[in-house]
Amino acid sequence: MLRQPVITKDGSHTVSVPEMNVTYHSLHGAIQESLHVFIDAGFRYTLSNLNKLDIYIFEMGFGTGLNALLTFIETEKLNINVHYTAVELFPLQHEETNALNYCEQLQRSDLKPVFEQIHQCEWERDISITSFFTLHKVKNSLLNFNSSTSQHLIYFDAFAPSAQPELWTKEVFEKLVRMMHPGGVLITYCSKGDVRRAMQAAGFIVEKIPGPPGKREMVRCRKASEG
Question: For the chain, which terminal residue's Cβ has fewer other Cβ atoms within 10 angstroms, N or C?
């Protein structure tokens, strides 16, 4: 599968997959999109409603590692521990991740060793990136993935439904509901009507919220709290 680096409008890289007609991040700005969708509307929102020192995050679609890096940056500011699990069936190669310019664009060249470790560390086991950030990468499809750990937050960053329709079904969202703490949050950039209906049928409480530049709306879901 051919993958090509592309510079987006905010100067940061994404990766294009021409045969699938998809990119890993928005062409309007990779960092800009990830900050808006996953950090602001996901991570910060969840923390504001969660009184815990340990937070469990699951990412569908590890991809470029940008969401993990941005979460790491947020976490280093806070007195909490993050346990970050990510599923990726087709990991980027070292030469591909080495070319990504996120640390430079964020003006955090000091994080280059962290970003490299995020990508190069061993799969299928817990890796302590720092004392406050533990990463567990799984090379598998979400369809075959199972976890006994309850998640507080899910970054659902699969390719669009037109490219990966099998990942946007009621059955997949039912699996994710079972993986979550009561009151847990799932955040995604997609707001298609059939996707929202599948989420609702799976048991999520679904709300449309403003999307990042270039996208009018996105979706945030919650698992109902017990009682």
Answer: C
Kindly report, residue by residue over 127-168, the tens digit of the pLDDT: 999 999 999 999 999 999 998 899 999 999 999 999 999 999
Indicate the helix (H) or strand (E) that contains 90. Answer: none
- By C-alpha distance, which of 174, 184, 147, 176 is closest to 45? 184
Element (H, E) at 74: helix 66-75
Interaxial angle between packed helices 170-178 and 193-202, expressed in degrees from 0 to 180 and rounded to the nearest 10: 40
Tokens, residue 187: 């955040």
Rg (CA), the chain: 16
Whether the model clears a pTM of 0.85, i.e. scores above it, the answer is yes
For the chain, the residue count is 227
- Separation between Cα atoms, residue 41 and residue 64, nearest integer Å: 20
Low-confidence ranges of the chain (pLDDT < 50): 227
Distance of CA 85 to the CA centre of its chain: 10
Reduced DSSP (H G I as helix, E B as strand, rest coil) percent helix, strand, coil of the chain, to 5: 35, 30, 35
Neighbours of 27 (CB within 10 A): 15
